[in-house]
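Tutorial handout. Part one gives the primary structure; part two gives the three-dimensional structure as C-alpha cells.
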Amino acid sequence: MSDQTSDFHLTRPVRPSRAEFRVYFGLIFLATLPLATLTWALSLLRGGHWPDRGPVARAWSQARIITPMIFSA
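Part two.
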C-alpha cells in the first residue's frame, strides 16, 4: 500500500531565463567598463608597458564573476 498522505512532487527548480541573465550581464559589463579602463590606464602609466589584458577583457572578466553571484543569491 502506498502512502497517499504526502503531497511530494518531483519538480525541477525554476531557473531564470537566459535573456534576463544577458541583460544583467550587459548592465554589469557597462558599469565595470569605466573602472576597468581607469585601472588599465593606471597600470600602463605606472608599469611603463602595455598590460596583458585590455580594459574590455578586464570588464568582461568582472562581469563573468559578478553576474552569477547575483543569480545564485
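Part three, for discussion. Residues 18-72 form one domain. The two ends are 41 Å apart (CA to CA).
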